[in-house]
């Protein structure tokens, strides 16, 4: 029963938040270098994003990789779709596409 509840919770979080980062720690205090780099890049866009601290939510930490087919954290979802992890986020920051990707739909 817990697995179904956790999967439904994850799917609801992704549906309810246009931009959501599953990370280790919180944006004000990331607990790994990859999460820190992802948060820094996202903050530079100036667009809001939600987050889930997977260290404080072990059921989510365990289940999300099976849903997303992405094995590591952080994981960025935009408009219900997985964008990727730290390497993808930093690549998008470097090529200038991150800001447009995370811009809320109504502002586009």
UniProtKB/TrEMBL annotation:
Keywords: 2Fe-2S, Iron, Iron-sulfur, Metal-binding, Redox-active center. Signal peptide: none annotated. The keyword Iron applies. [2Fe-2S] cluster binds at residue 32. SUPFAM superfamilies: Thioredoxin-like. It comes from the Bacteria. InterPro entries: Glutaredoxin, GRX_PICOT-like, Monothiol_GRX, Monothiol_GRX-rel, Thioredoxin-like_sf. GO terms for molecular function: 2 iron, 2 sulfur cluster binding; disulfide oxidoreductase activity; metal ion binding. It holds the Pfam family Glutaredoxin. Residues 19-83 form the Glutaredoxin domain. Transmembrane segments: none annotated. Belongs to the glutaredoxin family. Monothiol subfamily. This is Glutaredoxin. The gene is grxD.
């Amino acid at each position: 029963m817990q697995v179904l509840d956790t999967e439904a919770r994850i799917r609801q979080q992704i549906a309810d938040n246009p931009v959501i980062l599953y990370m280790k720690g919180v944006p004000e205090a990331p607990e790994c270098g990859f999460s820190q780099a992802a948060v820094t890049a996202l903050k530079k866009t100036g667009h809001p994003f939600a987050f889930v601290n997977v260290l404080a939510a072990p059921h989510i930490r365990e289940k999300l990789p099976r849903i997303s087919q992405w094995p590591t954290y952080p994981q960025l979802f935009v408009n219900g779709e997985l964008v990727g992890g730290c390497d993808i986020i930093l690549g998008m920051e470097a090529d200038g596409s991150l800001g447009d990707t995370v811009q809320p739909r109504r502002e586009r």
